[in-house]
Amino acid sequence: METVLLDVQRLGNQAIEQAAQLLHRGEIVAFPTETVYGLGAVIWNEEAVRKIFVAKGRPLDNPLIVHIASVQMALPLVREPLDRFRLLARHFWPGPLTLVVKHRGNVPSIVTAGLPTVAIRMPDHPVALALIEKVGEPLVAPSANRSGKPSPTRAEHVVEDLAGSIAAVLDAGPTQIGIESTVLVLTTDPPRIVRPGVVTKEALEAVLGIPVEEAVPGDADRPVAPGMKYRHYAPTVPVRLFESPEELEQALQDAAEQRILVLALPQWRTRFQHSPGYRLLSEQTLYETFREADRDRWEAVWILVDEEVQRRRGLYNRILKAATS
Ligand code: AMP
Ligand code: MG
User: Fold this and answer.
1) Which of 78, 119, 234, 284 is deepest in the core (most CB within 10 A)?
2) Running DSSP on this structure, what letter comes out for residue 317?
3) Is the pLDDT of residue 150 over 60?
4) Is 292 a domain residue?
5) Does the beta carbon of 45 lie inside 6 Å of ligand 1?
6) What pLDDT digit, counting tens, does each position of 155-192 carry?
C-alpha cells in the first residue's frame, strides 16, 4: 500500500477532507495531536480498528484511546461516573488528559480489549478536532509508531515506522507537548493516574477536590493500565541515568572513547555542551532524540535526572521506562 502524505500547510482543508474520506472507507490514517501523532480509525469499524493493531504490531490486549471533538460526542459511550467525567472534561478538554470510565456496552471490544471501561480524550489540536468533526464519529487512536518504538512527534517519524502499512499521514509539523496524555482512571476510589503526563496530580486534585493516587509501574498489587506491562518509549541503544552532574561528568571522562549522547536540562548547558553528543532534555524533544540515537548509531544515551526532572512526572516516567526496559 502506498502511504499518502497530506501536508496541511500546503493543502489546508483539502488534506483534512481527504483523510476523512479514507477513514470513512475503512482505512487507517495518522494525524497530529498536541501530545504525539495518533493512528486513527473510525470507532465502529472493527476491521479498520484491527488494521491499527496489525500496522503497529500491537498486542490485542492493549486497549485504544477514543478521541472525540466534543463532550456531546463522548456522552453516548459513558455510563459512569458522569459527574467527575463532566467536571474534568470541562476543566481540561481539549487537552492532554485521558479519562477512563465505565462504558455503556456499545464500544466494540477490540477497542477496549474486552474491559468494561473505555479511555476517552479530546485532543487540543485544530487538525485533530477538524478531522474528527468532519468524520462525525469518534476515532480510536493509539500513538502512530511501531509498538516498542518511541512515540512519533513528527510526521517523518510516522513515515519511518509505518510507511506502506497505513493509508495516509496528515502532516502538521512537530507536536507541542511531545509525550503522551495523562491517563486518569475514574472508576476507582480514589481516582488513579495510570500514566503520568503534563496534566499533574496536583492540578487534578485541585479540580476534583479529593486526593488522586499515582500507580507505580510494576506494582503487582494494583491493576494498572494494560499498556504499562509492555516495553515502551525506548531506543534500541542502552539508556543510563545519573542523578548528579558530578557523577555524569566523571563517567563521561572515563568513557572518553565512546560516542555517548548526553541529555540534560538547559540549566546544565554550560557544563556539558563541550561533550560531542550534548542535547537539551525536554518533554518535547525526548522521543526525537531517542530516534536520533538509533538512527545515527550512538553507543549509549546518558541522561541527567536531577531533582527537577524527577518532579516532571511525565518526563521522568518516560525516561525510567526507557532505562529499565
Ligand atoms: P497509546 O498506545 O500510547 O495510545 O496508549 C494507550 C493507553 O491508554 C494504553 O496503553 C492504556 O495505558 C490506556 N488505556 C486505554 N484504554 C484503557 C482502559 N480501558 N483502562 C485503562 N487504561 C486504558
Ligand atoms: Mg503508544
Assistant:
1) 119
2) H
3) yes
4) yes
5) no
6) 999 999 999 999 999 999 999 999 999 999 999 999 99
Query: pTM for the full model?
Result: 0.95
149 alpha carbon, closest ligand: 2
Residue 174 near ligand 1, beta carbon < 6 Å:
no
Judge if 266 and 128 occupy the same domain: no
CA distances from 57 to 22, 28, 50 (A): 21, 14, 11
Indicate the top mutation candidate among 36, 49, 52, 65 to test ligand 1's pocket, ranked by most ligand atoms within 8 A of CB.
65
Paired sense of beta strands 29-31 and 38-42, if any: antiparallel
Å from CA of 154 to ligand 2 middle: 14
Query: What is the residue range of 305's domain?
Result: 239-322
Task: Tell me the DSSP string of 31-97.
Answer: E--SSS-EEEEETT-HHHHHHHHHHHT--TTS--EEE-SSHHHHGGGEEE-HHHHHHHHHHH-SSSE
> Which among 170, 198, 214 is the end of a domain?
214
Count of domains forming the chain: 2
